[in-house]
Design goal:
alpha+beta, homohexamer, Tetrahydropterin Synthase, Chain A
């Protein structure tokens, strides 16, 4: 019910990256069956569109939920600089061990952003192509922590 | 609360179809008042954009909620092949009796997809024009069935 | 749970307007720090895209949630005519006293639309630029009132 | 070279219509081979997006090439009212004899608009789906007529 | 024919601004007739999307027509900084005397960009709303100057 | 003038790929200065949107310029299969020696498509991100060859 008070703000960011979907502990047949052409040895890439939704009460003084002047540098530093123009498997440490599917990228972005101090992170939505998008709104632990 | 664990995936499909909004048991005046130019005798058509959202836990092995290699042929077979390049009133049996408003098309698509075996169907969203979209997330019965 | 029965319909409207973010009771330094270039004395403008979502049961007779023939003139009269091609600070009375941030515009639009008689207003979403959107689904009071 | 003086203005209109691609003088096999699923007996439909480009000198008094207050009712009357929510094969006389391919619709629209009195019609572009568009800028005869 | 050698590059920029269409030497009736609601005394605004097209030979060394590292700061300085979040009639000197119609904004942007040193300016396209865009490719004088 | 007779058709294709902009014969400083973050050793990727425009007379029998049933497999085979989900520098032979800038990708696509037998290739347009696109309409040699 506390949700009812809130207004949410969604801000879009973009980054371009490459990745390869492949697990060394799977057989070649399994990699091919599960990831198809996404498992090609040389990787491939996408323009990712990331929507970050935060929410909160509207400050009666400023008329704003949060200042984009605070959100933008936070997201730039935590996500965009780290992911943009990178080969995710090699250059983002979390994807050395975890396969960088859009699902896992989405969760990793959520993990990096959930500490935003000026408003509550509601969810992240990641568009990988014009046909696919992924949305994550937190693990159980986060959700319990957020309850008042 | 079980929602908190889930990540959702939205996949877009497209089909082009024609329909006519008209009920034989309404008077001409009523058909005209309710459906306006959509009740023209010869029908008219749209490019429909369909977004199917499924959700589930991320498989720790594959890093995926569901394999598009399974979702795509399911949606193609159940919906796209049946609706694409068709006159809905005549060629989709459910619309012989029910008027194919976007609302009813949306519900019929949900009904056809809710049995997807590999993940939970969250909702379907149907865009009929650049100005209108419709979203359905299930009847009470479905919802109760889904509760653990 | 009553939500489960509903189908929602989202309709897009557009208006172009100008505004200035500035509070006379803030110092110039504060106006600049909080609103940045949005506090320029002469104002600036945007094309706003407004999505209005209403929901309800699908009428078994008409196959519709609500008639756009009723929704369109209501939104046109309450919002589009009042906001389109206007300088919001001066020409919309509510923004003489409240600063017309997207958040406050969003809430004002919700307030103007929540009385729509033919279906329940679920939420309004206001896109101010291709990078920013804002969504509001009502104050606590509204929400309690809506519960059966 | 006279082109160099001109500024062009493109205005978008939308209509939804249905059609069937089929020629009675072709065999069924040929209709199927040439038009594929577009030859289904009941027809199918699209949301068409039409871009009309006109050009001319900028009027030094008004700062405009042409007044949209003149262009809009012209296009509405000549094209949108005639095509919107229609079954083109039956309800637009030109398509009783000619098959309403996007190419022929495009040419027919050009023919209907080339007489716009207040500026030169440069071209029409018709988008039939998110993947296909068609553009026509006139027959030789028109072009010669237009040369000074 | 020299065109045949060239590859063109189009880059998109965005700015938000407000304007008023009104000429003091026109009567109120004429202002209203010509500019309609765009002549409202307080002005109104838009999100403008600007596409700048440059062309040239592809440098066999770098594989590029021009370096965006040179184009971006040029357009930012000449246009975006000068127009973004401004009331054009008052804050861009050229529009103190000329009415800031999209046509005139388009020409003024072309005038400001035609001196780009690293490639030939082909045209500018200015989108004022989702329904209107304007394109300008130069005055005769520019064109003759450009011929080798 | 022969252009006047033609109607053009533009068809959109999509592929996702990764690349690295880097020339071994440039110094590191030069690679960095010219290509910036695009020269990162591990490459990065994009969703490419490709628009292929062909033109010709409308066949009076079929009402079409060309059959998409012929164009689609041609473009799929010549471009999409070869580029989609590939690391261009390594997996497309032409980019072993030439740096795969969007300009060079655009020219290579044109080269692969210009032999389309059923209509004249007018141009290819390649969108690399939502801010950049590139267009190529042929080398002088091609153009002369095309003249009747």
């Amino acid at each position: 019910m506390s949700r009812a008070l809130k207004l949410s703000l969604t801000r879009r960011y973009r980054f371009a990256a490459s990745h390869r979907l492949h697990r060394p502990n799977f057989s070649e047949t399994d990699n091919q069956r599960i990831y198809g052409k996404c498992s090609n040895p040389h990787g491939h890439g996408h323009n990712y569109s990331l929507e970050v939704t935060i929410s909160g009460a509207v400050d009666p003084e400023t008329g704003m939920v949060a200042n984009l002047g605070e959100l933008d540098p936070f997201v730039e530093r935590e996500v965009v600089e780290a992911f943009d123009h990178k080969y995710l498997n090699e250059e983002v440490p979390e994807f050395n061990k975890e396969v960088p599917t859009a699902e896992n990228i989405c969760r990793e972005i959520y993990r990096r952003l959930k500490g935003f101090p000026a408003a509550r992170l509601e969810r992240v939505r990641l568009e990988e192509t014009s046909k696919n998008s992924f949305e994550f709104d937190g693990e159980i632990g986060d959700r319990e922590q957020r309850a008042p």
